[in-house]
Amino acid sequence: MMLDNLSKVHWVAHRGDCEHHIENTLDSIKTAINNGIEHIEIDVQLTQEGLPVVFHDNNLKAMLNLDTCMSKVSFSHINKQPLTPRKKTTVLNNDYYIPMLSQVVSLIQQSPNVTLYVEVKNINFCYFSYQYVYKTIINTLKPIIKQVVIIGFSYRFLRLVKKNSTLPIAYVLPSWKHYSIKMLSNLKPEIIFSDINIIPTTEEFFTKKETWVVYEISHIEQARRLINQGIYGFESFTPSLLKAISITKDK
Q: What fold is seen in the domain 4-46+102-249?
């Protein structure tokens, strides 16, 4: 039986469950869902023609061997081009491709208990207007809109989301100094994502109104320490593994 503090934890699959799958692929997302992870985070960028696809890097070199960015290539150019795994990734097969956001939406429709955190990458705004990015992504997400949280580093974009919708937003802190009364009053984020390396060890989160999610959690002891500070949301590339370990250790 799990201890009460661990039973409050919600694990967020960082780009899906990447223990044996390439990040941000349909397989990584499916695996997380099948293993009982109800919070999935993905990254979204627009291709040259404005099609929302799921991909993290600002440059395609590492995973597609193309020295350019997503907004400078058409989807037909990268469609069905196999992704290259990162060095530390042990993949189960070689058939991984960049999915369209619409494909992820269809997948999430089958799991109404899942929350999808859609990180809109800042590089989009170098090639498209904030309004265009917003409309394009939101229109694609409509079938699962009640399951969506919009997440990002862009203060300006998140304010646009707040102004034009009732969607919950999650602000990713660029640094600890960005956590301020001014930010909270102007942006009013329901959720805050923070890098584990910028969280002060003396800070207490028990009485804070917003929900906190800390990334990147790779060991269960990191989660235990943050629980003692009042944080119960943890983002990990291996959420299924950590969830299983947390149950085993507290039996």
A: TIM Barrel (3.20.20)
